[in-house]
Design a protein that fits this description.
The protein contains 8 helices and 3 strands, in the order αααβααββααα. By secondary structure, the protein is mostly helical. It is elongated, with a radius of gyration of 18 Å.
């Protein structure tokens, strides 16, 4: 028996898996200020040395005004804090609080469990291989971060192209 043509189509398969993943991820982060975008902000802050609000907004593809409101919400929830940038007192660096770091770790754990459930038809080694291959495809070797790719997907959804 052959696979029906539509089910053999890469675009169809990627779209179906992407939609299932986005529903699952939304469920995991639904109680976080900003939902998935809030999660990406927390994950973006965790990567590397402290960055300014503007640098963080640019790396995530978030409008700087939207970033300010999002950081206000995350700060109000005790997940992040802002401090003057020692190199430029007019700029603000964004840092995770201990509570924010714990929340990020818990969310990452829950997301991994949800992803493993989504990928249950695959063997554990196949799951790891799929993640590696998709990350390589998503970044295209151009140094794009996972946060940048996620922001592009969100933009596509907002435009109705995804």
């Amino acid at each position: 028996m052959t696979t029906p043509r539509v089910e053999a189509d890469l675009g169809w398969a990627l779209g179906r898996v992407t939609r299932a993943h986005m529903r699952t991820a939304q469920d995991v982060v639904s109680d976080l200020p900003g939902g998935p975008r809030g999660y990406h902000v927390l994950a973006g802050i965790e990567q590397g040395p402290p960055r300014t609000q503007l640098a963080l907004a640019r790396s995530l593809g978030v409008d700087r005004t939207v970033m300010t409101y999002l950081l206000d919400e995350l700060e109000g929830a005790g997940l992040v804090t802002r401090r003057p940038d020692p190199a430029d007192r007019r700029a603000r660096q964004v840092l995770l609080t201990d509570v924010g770091r714990e929340r990020l770790c818990a969310l990452e754990r829950r997301l991994r469990e949800a992803e493993d459930e989504l990928l249950a038809p695959l063997e554990p080694a196949e799951r790891d291989q799929l993640r590696t291959l998709l990350q390589r495809l998503a970044t295209g070797g151009d140094g794009a971060s996972a946060c940048q790719v996620a922001a592009e997907i969100q933009e596509m959804q907002a435009d109705g192209t995804c």
